[in-house]
TrEMBL record:
The gene is gltX. The lineage of its organism: Bacteria, Candidatus Magasanikiibacteriota. Keywords: Aminoacyl-tRNA synthetase, ATP-binding, Cytoplasm, Ligase, Metal-binding, Nucleotide-binding, Protein biosynthesis, Zinc. Its main location: cytoplasm. This is Glutamate--tRNA ligase. It comes from Candidatus Magasanikbacteria bacterium GW2011_GWA2_37_8. ATP binds at K260.
Amino acid sequence: MIRTRFAPSPTGFMHVGNLKMAITDYLISKQSGGQFLLRVEDTDRTRMVEGAVENLLHTLNWVGIIPDEGVKLGQDGKVVQVGDKGPYIQSERLEIYHKYVDELLGKGHAYYCFCSKERLEEVRKKQEENKQATGYDGHCRDIILADAKKRIEAGEGAVVRMRTPKEGVTKFNDLIRGEVVFENKLVDDQVILKSDGFPTYHLAVVVDDHLMEITHVIRGDEWMSSTPKHLVLYEMFGWQPPLFAHLPLLLNPDKSKLSKRQGDVAVEDYIKKGYLPEAIINFIAFLGWNPGDERELFSLEELIKEFSLEKVTKSGAVFNLEKLDWYNKEYLKRMDNEELAGICRSLMMEKYGITNYELGIMGKILALEKERATTLIELVENVKFVFELPNYDSSILIWKKSNLEEAKNILQGLINSLDTFSVQDWDKTTLEQKVGEWIKEKGFGNGNVLSPLRVALSGQQNSPGPFEIAEVLGKEETINRLQTAIKKIT
Ligand code: GLU
């Protein structure tokens, strides 16, 4: 059974690249009926942001990617930890890391390093000047452990570094990229325990993935260069490493790396802009993957069935926002009206100050524009004319070769006719049928009637059909708006 983990560092917001990792980890574990864990990697205390864990969890909940184990949101919306391999927050696991660091020190696989920041800086500068690969120069590598301990007892500060073998190669079979080989002499003597007593990412990730029985480590390509360090650590501990898959980087349309600065990369921003979770999941799953045929719309369930790491591209995946818009439009069009009303409820209340609309009516209002809008924000904005008739110029009431006088007569005729309709039958089908009969009876052209009617009801040149609008406006407001149009003409 596959166990995967999403291991975010709580640094503020969720980057779309992180969501891609989370989705992929989730899909791969679910395919085998396995577990998806969430572990919080907060060992870099300088990058911590208050509330970031809650934020991450809310975002994951919103897209429907719920961890089975580890850190998650409890019933009351508070952060909880679930599972028997915890704690799942690294800052709560310091004792565990210290034990494993001691083991490596004892076996000679790690050593204390007393080098000052200044010295390390100096070494790096020289290496750069000589065009050498940068990395630790091994200055403290041969200090005997007993001597190092004496220096520490005497008050000297130190970090612990892994004693990386300098010969041979480290190889592994990446599930996306195939065989990857690193020369050990290029693998740095990485710090594994910092002077503040916190482990570095490299030690913590290996210890935790092992103890939490992770079978597949699926993460972004930017972690590829860390993988040989991790494999060396697995070897030192004598542990079986998990399988690795490195997902392609996300790129801007100009093929540069998608960074924090270029465009919007925070998932939260897309939520705020009114994208649907279905669209975001589908769009992100399709960055660097497709099922190999024409199909593009996949629910989370369908993705679980069909997603496969073998079909993930090796090259970077372009983050194309037009495609996200396309997905959102498709999902908006297909969404049930009442469900849509439920989602837009608070946006509608906020924007139009409405308090007691039934979902049925609100759904009908939103249905007026749901085929045309790209985002929820745009949709809610586009139905504004229902709540507030926009000011418009009477010239747009004129249909083709017609004139204002004719428009006025037709509108007046419509008022007289609509006035006789009962409020009970005020639905778009009956209205369409009855007004159709009236048009025939009077011998008017359809456009000559329907166009000014549509404009009078919406105040817009381009708008949904007149009968749909009339239904949501109700009889009284429909007639009011026709009267307003007539007043504009006279
Ligand atoms: N904590 C790392 C991050 O912030 C996790 C990398 C990994 O998955 O190993 O993305």
